[in-house]
Amino acid sequence: MDKFIIQGPRRLQGDVEISGAKNAVLPLMAASLLARGESAIENVPDLRDVRTMIKLLRILGAEASLDGSVLSINTKSANGIEAPYDLVRTMRASIYVLGSLLATHGKARVSLPGGCAWGPRPIDLHLMAIERLGARVKLDHGYIYASSKRLKGTEIAFPVSSVGATANAMMAASLARGTTVIRNAALEPEVSELAKALVSGGVAIDGIGTSTLTIEGTQSLNPFRHRVIPDRIEAGTYAAAAVITGGSVRLHRCDPSHMEAVFNALKASGAEIKIENESVLVEGPKRAEPGHIVTREYPGFPTDMQAQIMAVLCRAKGFSTIKDTIYPDRFTHVPELRRFGADIRLDGNLAVINGVPSFQGAPVMATDIRASSALILAGLVAEGTTEVLRVYHIDRGYDRIVEKLRGLGAEIQRVSD
Ligand code: UD1
């Protein structure tokens, strides 16, 4: 398996282009199954998760090909209804095909995604949503079996805000008879992107960007063409890289309107952030100020930036706290950050951090995408050599990260172990 070798410390400086958002592309790919014909998605990042979803679409009978950053999906022969365990276990987002397969074919067989590195991650709300729309759902031998005649519009009130369940409910409701009202819908920009693509396919959706979505189902969706928004987590990671290294990084093609909470946290740590016409300039302080972060649903501070901000605060001038209210167990990076010399105490979902002046390079290993990027950030400022093992996770979510970091002056290389 490949690993990254990083020589530190280095101050990052220069320009970086932000790629399209992974978490926006994946539901759009699933949504293409709702239409007969060829849909196109632009600004698609070249990621392992995108390739996994392409494999899944092909297994379902669709033709899918990525040409540069344009993904074409032709569904005219997409008659499959099963998302097999082998693919679903490598990527939870495969669950997105549940709503579209059910709505299109009246049945779906999708492997249960199971837990993940940082906790159980249930799917009860996805199932509740499709049951409310009239599906019969059975769990058997590790698979979800869902079936129905044409789905029927209804009211779905989510007890907690869930990105994935909102997306699945929206896709299923798009081909349902009548009106569906989704209450406590997730507000994340990636959910709004899906809604906009469905609208361009002919579904009427009211309330996009709010917590109440009203969806007027249609008999059939037209293929759509959609350009994906910039990845706010990737942009936040490079911004954090500027801050942790005391560097100066200009982010191109990012959307600052999606990044207020992250930018506010970085400003509180002493960074200067200038929103320019087409870019955002992030200048890090010599050494970060401590801070207090609580992850929340959008527009709050994203759980997907929790590990990266932790790397920054571990080198701050005093005590910081980080509480993850979305995933209380999402702390697998803590023991790895300690290997650089970080001083972190965990108390349930609260991390108490005593900032240290320097990190020492170390061999480390991550168990999820964002934890891996936090370890890379730590390696950029650590004295000496850092080896980050299991780069597989980075490949899932970061487009050309070695190239982009080297462009900013980092000394990082990928080697086969
Ligand atoms: C998505 C993102 C992930 C991000 C997360 C939270 C994708 C592909 N993944 O994941 O990167 O970290 O949003 O912003 O977009 N919950 C339930 N029952 C359910 C579903 C969720 O209780 O059926 C809970 C979860 O345990 C969690 C909360 O709802 O506490 C939010 O999770 P959710 O928004 O569903 O996350 P995902 O869509 O899986």
Description of the structure:
This protein is of the alpha/beta class and 417 residues long. It folds into two domains: 205 residues, UDP-n-acetylglucosamine1-carboxyvinyl-transferase, Chain (Alpha-beta prism), CATH 3.65.10; 206 residues, Enolpyruvate transferase domain (UDP-n-acetylglucosamine1-carboxyvinyl-transferase, Chain, Alpha-beta prism). The chain contains 14 helices and 24 strands. A hairpin with a 2-residue loop joins strand 4 and strand 5. Helix 1 runs parallel beside helix 2, helix 1 runs parallel beside helix 7 and helix 4 runs parallel beside helix 6. The termini are close together. The model has no long low-confidence stretch (mean pLDDT 96). Uridine-diphosphate-N-acetylglucosamine binds next to helix 1, helix 5 and helix 6.
Layout: helices, strands, pairs:
Layout: E1 2-8, E2 13-17, H1 22-31, E3 38-42, H2 48-59, E4 63-67, E5 70-74, E6 82-83, H3 85-88, H4 97-105, E7 107-111, H5 124-132, E8 136-140, E9 143-147, E10 155-157, H6 163-174, E11 179-183, H7 189-200, E12 204-206, E13 212-216, E14 225-227, H8 232-244, E15 248-252, H9 260-268, E16 272-275, E17 279-283, E18 292-295, H10 306-313, E19 319-324, H11 333-338, E20 343-347, E21 350-354, E22 363-365, H12 369-381, E23 384-389, H13 392-397, H14 401-407, E24 411-416
Parallel strand pairs: 2-15, 3-14, 6-7, 10-11, 18-19, 22-23
Antiparallel strand pairs: 1-23, 1-24, 3-5, 4-5, 7-9, 8-9, 11-13, 12-13, 15-17, 16-17, 19-21, 20-21
Helix pairs in contact: 1-2, 1-7, 4-6, 5-6, 6-7, 8-10, 8-12, 10-12
